[in-house]
TrEMBL record:
SUPFAM superfamilies: alpha/beta-Hydrolases. The keyword Methyltransferase does not apply. GO terms for molecular function: hydrolase activity. Transmembrane segments: none annotated. Keywords: Hydrolase. This is Putative hydrolase. Residues 286-298 have a biased composition (Basic residues).
Length: 313
């Protein structure tokens, strides 16, 4: 099991009045480039713990918890729709002083990264998308049920809410996650603040924010590669090939066998290997200008990791 304890303490920065937990991992010698990792829902940057740790042997790696998730601000006043998160991503890249970083994104993190690029003009050296939310239809029946009845779910007794969240998280994987991993991934959503935040972030997510992205995919200016779990129970593999057909140059699709939706946790070594192979083929991006830092505090909850095989198609 991987945890946030494997990562450096979070640095809390403020973007447009909202507190965001960020982390930077530095390589022991000169950096081969800058990588920004974007998480999805209902996750946090902890899903990237193993991948980030490995990549940081050679690259500077930047992680963030989207507001409403992880250690970032979770108050009811925080907007958690995809449009707002895309603006924050662009602001963080500017704050970190990065010029055309490599971007690796999972789930709705892919929609956030693409929206920042296609609608907000944020430039990347390249982007690797894993099991991303972009094309209609998206959202499981449970997801839609919660979105339509959030006020009811928010009132669930704490033990029923905890059971629901853990079952939802466990269902994302093809092979069973360990109890420790499920506990770690669910921890951010437990307690009164976490419970309310869990249902708020689901309610805030809408295909209305991804359709403008899907309609502009052919205008993507950065090289793209797509990765997917062959047995993704949330977003079927066929969406990877639909995405492939919409991007310029029909990018390669890397498929991980015996892996579900939670690719960075279920098979971090395969994800890392695919990212490293991809970056080895890309020209080096411009070097950074400066790195912004915020107030630091110690991290709290944990993360996860497990197995599978991969093929490129």
């Amino acid at each position: 099991m991987m945890t946030h304890d494997s990562l450096p303490p979070a640095s809390i920065v403020t973007v447009n009045g909202t507190s965001i937990a960020t982390r930077t991992l530095e390589p022991p010698t000169a950096s081969a480039g800058d990588i920004v990792l974007c998480h999805g829902t209902p996750w946090s940057s902890q899903v990237w713990t193993s991948v980030a740790t490995d990549l940081s042997r050679d690259y500077r790696v930047f992680l963030w918890d989207m507001p409403g998730y992880g250690e970032s601000e979770k108050s009811a006043a925080v907007t958690t729709d995809l449009a707002a998160q895309a603006v924050r991503l662009g602001a963080l890249i500017e704050l970190w002083g990065l010029q055309r970083p490599h971007v690796v994104a999972h789930d709705i993190g892919g929609a956030v990264a693409l929206r920042a690029h296609l609608l907000n003009g944020v430039e990347y050296a390249d982007v690797f998308l894993w099991d991303v939310v972009t094309l209609d239809p998206w959202g499981s029946p449970f997801f839609r049920l919660v979105a339509e009845n959030a006020h009811v779910f928010e009132q669930l007794p704490a033990h029923l809410h905890a059971a629901l969240v853990k079952e939802y998280i466990a269902a994302a994987a093809f092979r069973p996650l360990s109890d420790e991993d499920v506990e770690a991934l669910a921890s951010q959503w437990l307690g009164p603040i976490g419970q309310a935040a869990f249902y708020r972030q689901i309610t805030a997510l809408s295909a209305a924010d991804t359709r403008p992205v899907a309609n502009r995919l052919e205008a993507t200016r950065s090289p793209v590669r797509i990765g997917w779990g062959r047995d993704d129970p949330w977003i079927p593999l066929r969406q990877a090939y639909e995405l492939q057909s919409r991007f310029p140059d029909h990018p390669e699709v890397v498929v991980l066998d015996d892996v579900g939706h939670l690719t960075p946790v279920e098979h971090p070594s395969a994800v890392t290997a695919a990212v490293r192979a991809w970056l080895a083929r890309q020209p080096a991006p411009p070097r950074r200008r400066r790195v912004g830092h915020g107030r630091s505090r110690r991290p709290s909850p944990p993360s996860a990791a497990q197995g599978g095989r991969g093929t490129a198609q």
